[in-house]
Structures are given as structure tokens and as C-alpha cells.
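Please fill in the sequence for the structure shown.

STRUCTURE ENCODING:
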């Protein structure tokens, strides 16, 4: 990987990882007021690193459509997660909130990749 792309990957990836980890920690620790055990911390770090690697990769590879759609999905996922945490759902709000984050992120990842592929073929068709 060339130096400029590697720098983009690491800078965007680390920012998204840190922000994701901070938002998850804030939601669980401050909003839900639950203690975090080692297994939960490991899962949250793994999720945040996954978000960081994917967004950093999309950005470094100039996959603007996938980057934008996936980033929007992560942001929407955090809003829904916080909404579920606050709503409570009779004790199920914590599980539903984290699952909402994962589901919105997964859907936006798939949609972003499909839209990026469509955009690639449209640009390829225009060059002919």
C-alpha cells in the first residue's frame, strides 16, 4: 500500500475506532449505568475496530459511495441504539440497542458495497 493511502487508512480508521469505542462506552456505562466486564469490553473493542478498519479501507481505496453509506449507517445505528437504551423496552433495551447498531451497520455495509459496485459500472459505461 502506498504511503498516502496507508496514511488515509490509519487516520480515518483510528478516528472511527476511537469514536465508536467512546460512543459504545458512553451508552453502556453512562446511559445504561451498567458495569462492563472483560468479555463485553473485548466485544466492544472488536466492533469498534471492525468499524474503523472498514471505514478506513473504504476511504483509502476511494470508495466514496461505500464510505458514505456505511458511515451514515453507523451514525443511524448509534442514534437508534441510544434511543433504545433510553426507551428501556422493559429490560430488553440494552440488547435491542446493541443489536440495532449491528443490524444498521450490517445493512449499510451491504448497501454501500452494492451501490459502490453500481457506481463503478455506471462510471465504466460513461468512459466508453
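FILLED IN BY: designer on duty
SEQUENCE:
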Amino acid at each position: 500500500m502506498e504511503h498516502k493511502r496507508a496514511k488515509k487508512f490509519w487516520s480515518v480508521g483510528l478516528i472511527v475506532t476511537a469514536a465508536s469505542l467512546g460512543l459504545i462506552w458512553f451508552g453502556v456505562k453512562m446511559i445504561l449505568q451498567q458495569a462492563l466486564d472483560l468479555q463485553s469490553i473485548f466485544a466492544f473493542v472488536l466492533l469498534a475496530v471492525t468499524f474503523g478498519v472498514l471505514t478506513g479501507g473504504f476511504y483509502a481505496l476511494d470508495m466514496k459511495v461505500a464510505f458514505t453509506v456505511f458511515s451514515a449507517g453507523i451514525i443511524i445505528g448509534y442514534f437508534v441504539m441510544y434511543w433504545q437504551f433510553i426507551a428501556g423496552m422493559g429490560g430488553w433495551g440494552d440488547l435491542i440497542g446493541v443489536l440495532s447498531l449491528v443490524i444498521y451497520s450490517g445493512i449499510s455495509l451491504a448497501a454501500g458495497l452494492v451501490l459502490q459496485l453500481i457506481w463503478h459500472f455506471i462510471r465504466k459505461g460513461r468512459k466508453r
